[in-house]
Amino acid sequence: MNESAKAIKKNKFMREALGLSDSVINLAELAENALKEQFARVDDTAQINQWRVMKAFADNRVSEAHFAPTTGYGYDDLGRDTLDKVYADIFGTEDALVRHNFVNGTHALSTMLFGVLRPGDHLVSATGKPYDTLEEAIGISGKAGSGSLKDFGVTYTEIPLANDGNPDFDELAFTLSHMNVRAVMIQRSKGYGRRPTYSAEKIGEIVSFVKERSPETICIVDNCYGEFADIKEPTHFGADLAAGSLIKNPGGGIAPCGGYIAGRADLVELCAYRLTSVGIGKECGASLGLNRQLYQGLFMAPHITAQAIKSALFCSAVFEKLGFDVDPLPTEARHDIIQSIQFGDPEKVKAFCRGIQKGAPVDSFVTPEPWDMPGYSDQVIMAAGAFVQGSSIELSADAPMREPYMVYMQGGLTYESAKLGIMVAADKIMKL
């Protein structure tokens, strides 16, 4: 069968079996044809990262023995302790704390903050407003007395971004020179904001800027959504700590839960004391048979992250051609898996999320609706037909229901499946 005949057969299947219009089929073909160079760059990054992961596995002699479950206290859990070493090697750090006990990325980040900060310390966010779910942990919002950093006497300064979306280095320098800053927090991904996602190298520049002016200040990174998007991580460029979720990039779509913290050994120990108890730290914590999934997910992570980035590129190209404001543009370098689209209309946001849900492998029949989600100040609509509940490395989309009505899409375990979800979403938008 020649290429033309294959294309006709594929398009017929999309029309008759999937109900897609000729307009969206043609649009998708145009978008995909324009992305060949970008896809090749993503594949090159995935290859380097895959080799880095494989070297860490080999250097730490990962074997079947590391998958054996432990119960109770979990003393001498070989798989758990070796996984920490594997993560430390991959992230270029002295130590790591990788645990299924972390309930989400916010928990890992909160553990990192509470682990290293003490009453009287000052925390600075160098990249503007942090992700919504951290606000109550810091004490920016929420009730007094709930146990935030603010309640424990940690003060906080938030440095707004410069007009170009990059850190305001003048203001950061002023703050460092006028305050005794214990820690500077850097958020890699844009979250629900409109600014560039920072590359690992860019974060390294921020870290160097801080260290030149305040060598003792700890630089900590919210690395969520960014792992394996570049060939190195922020910790390779001097960040003292980085944290993220295992149901995002590093779990490879296989880890069922968990999070990680990687960095300086003394700081990782403090984080472990926060997660368990002072004096216990990393020594306890049964793996309960989850080690195999955490190892296998990490092994798959570079490839799966590449699939998600290709999906984001395709989404960007399709919706740019439909005339919407997309960020990043299809031609821009990618440093995380997130694609934002500004619709300016709540109905279009709902239609997009419902299209993504319809194209999901799980719960495709569900209709997403905005709701009051814990940790968020506005109603949020979420599309998430995932094998792991809330997994952001699987195709998903979410949006706070507020102006300018932007939706954030991420994930895709396979490019082919994510492509379908994006086409269904585009079809729904085109039919409004």
Mean pLDDT comes to 95
How many helices? The count is: 12
Distance between the termini: 37 Å
What characteristic shape results from the CA principal axes?
globular
Structural class of the helices, strands and pairings?
Answer: alpha/beta
Question: Percentage of helical residues?
Answer: 40-55%
Strand line-up across the major sheet: 1-7-6-5-4-2-3
Low-confidence stretches: none
Could you tell me the number of beta strands? 12
Please indicate the percent range of residues in DSSP E strands (runs of 2 or more): 5-15%
Q: Which helices and strands occur, and which strands form pairs?
A:
Blueprint: H1 3-16, H2 22-33, H3 36-59, H4 78-91, E1 95-99, H5 105-116, E2 122-125, H6 135-138, E3 155-158, H7 169-178, E4 183-187, H8 200-213, E5 218-222, E6 241-245, E7 259-263, H9 265-275, H10 291-321, E8 325-327, E9 338-342, H11 346-358, E10 380-384, E11 396-400, E12 406-410, H12 415-430
Parallel strand pairs: 2-3, 2-4, 4-5, 5-6
Antiparallel strand pairs: 1-7, 6-7, 8-9, 9-12, 10-11, 11-12
Helix pairs in contact: 2-10, 2-12, 3-4, 3-10, 5-9, 7-8, 10-12, 11-12
